[in-house]
């Protein structure tokens, strides 16, 4: 039975690496996959999912007004595939998450989404909120804070090195400005807790 999966984490936890490995495992067993990533995230080139460790693969892209149920249906018409993989899933719209759920239910295609859960302000992305509500299974891709605790939050630092409290939710690139932290150290960076 097909399911909608949400693999989530903070920045630089290896979500794309995990996605690429899972897709490779399917193909190694003779099963085709369908990879999608956000069109405007072209850090590795348009239509490419890439990991910081140097692996990457071509992918189809989606933008806000794409109907992903139609996109998966069209891809199926060109030949069967065993699983759809969505990178940068935080950029999905709520409607697109429902379209993916419909593809799981009506087309019997497993869909594995990989993305951030929260932004640098500690707020859910729209796509992530919808996935948390609709996913059949959720899996955390873990990374650690500098203190050794599990990192669940991320700060975006400004040119002065201090944590930003405001700004656009989405900033493509700039990995060097983000730091994954445990909640306690995130609170300290945001001025909500004295540093110890």
From TrEMBL:
<keyword id="KW-0808">Transferase</keyword>
<keyword id="KW-0963">Cytoplasm</keyword>
<keyword id="KW-0237">DNA synthesis</keyword>
<feature type="binding site">
    <location>
        <position position="182"/>
    </location>
    <ligand>
        <name>Zn(2+)</name>
    </ligand>
</feature>
<feature type="binding site">
    <location>
        <position position="178"/>
    </location>
    <ligand>
        <name>substrate</name>
    </ligand>
</feature>
<feature type="binding site">
    <location>
        <begin position="9"/>
        <end position="16"/>
    </location>
    <ligand>
        <name>ATP</name>
    </ligand>
</feature>
<keyword id="KW-0862">Zinc</keyword>
<dbReference type="InterPro" id="IPR027417">
    <property type="entry name" value="P-loop_NTPase"/>
</dbReference>
<feature type="binding site">
    <location>
        <position position="145"/>
    </location>
    <ligand>
        <name>Zn(2+)</name>
    </ligand>
</feature>
<dbReference type="Pfam" id="PF00265">
    <property type="entry name" value="TK"/>
</dbReference>
<comment type="subunit">
    <text>Homotetramer.</text>
</comment>
<dbReference type="GO" id="GO:0008270">
    <property type="term" value="F:zinc ion binding"/>
</dbReference>
<dbReference type="GO" id="GO:0046104">
    <property type="term" value="P:thymidine metabolic process"/>
</dbReference>
<dbReference type="InterPro" id="IPR020633">
    <property type="entry name" value="Thymidine_kinase_CS"/>
</dbReference>
<keyword id="KW-0067">ATP-binding</keyword>
<dbReference type="GO" id="GO:0004797">
    <property type="term" value="F:thymidine kinase activity"/>
</dbReference>
<keyword id="KW-0479">Metal-binding</keyword>
<keyword id="KW-0547">Nucleotide-binding</keyword>
<dbReference type="GO" id="GO:0005829">
    <property type="term" value="C:cytosol"/>
</dbReference>
<feature type="active site" description="Proton acceptor">
    <location>
        <position position="88"/>
    </location>
</feature>
<feature type="binding site">
    <location>
        <position position="147"/>
    </location>
    <ligand>
        <name>Zn(2+)</name>
    </ligand>
</feature>
<protein>
    <recommendedName>
        <fullName>Thymidine kinase</fullName>
        <ecNumber>2.7.1.21</ecNumber>
    </recommendedName>
</protein>
<feature type="binding site">
    <location>
        <position position="185"/>
    </location>
    <ligand>
        <name>Zn(2+)</name>
    </ligand>
</feature>
<keyword id="KW-0418">Kinase</keyword>
<comment type="similarity">
    <text>Belongs to the thymidine kinase family.</text>
</comment>
<feature type="binding site">
    <location>
        <begin position="170"/>
        <end position="173"/>
    </location>
    <ligand>
        <name>substrate</name>
    </ligand>
</feature>
<feature type="binding site">
    <location>
        <begin position="87"/>
        <end position="90"/>
    </location>
    <ligand>
        <name>ATP</name>
    </ligand>
</feature>
<dbReference type="GO" id="GO:0071897">
    <property type="term" value="P:DNA biosynthetic process"/>
</dbReference>
<dbReference type="GO" id="GO:0005524">
    <property type="term" value="F:ATP binding"/>
</dbReference>
<dbReference type="InterPro" id="IPR001267">
    <property type="entry name" value="Thymidine_kinase"/>
</dbReference>
């Amino acid at each position: 039975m097909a399911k909608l999966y949400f693999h989530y984490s903070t920045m630089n936890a290896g979500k794309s690496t995990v996605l690429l490995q899972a897709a490779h495992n399917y193909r190694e067993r003779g099963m085709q996959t369908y990879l999608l990533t956000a069109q405007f995230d072209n850090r590795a080139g348009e239509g490419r999912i890439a990991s910081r460790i140097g692996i990457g693969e071509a992918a189809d892209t989606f933008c806000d007004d794409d109907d992903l149920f139609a996109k998966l249906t069209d891809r199926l018409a060109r030949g069967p595939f065993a699983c759809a993989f969505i990178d940068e899933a935080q950029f999905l719209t709520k409607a697109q998450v429902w379209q993916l759920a419909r593809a799981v239910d009506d087309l019997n295609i497993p869909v594995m989404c990989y993305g951030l859960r929260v932004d640098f302000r500690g707020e859910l992305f729209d796509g992530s909120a919808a996935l948390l509500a609709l996913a059949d299974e959720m899996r955390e891709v873990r990374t650690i804070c500098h203190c050794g605790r599990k990192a669940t939050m991320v700060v975006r630092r400004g040119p002065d090195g201090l944590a930003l409290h405001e700004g656009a939710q989405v900033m493509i690139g700039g990995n060097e400005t983000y730091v994954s932290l445990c909640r306690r150290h995130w609170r300290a960076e945001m001025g909500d807790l004295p540093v110890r």
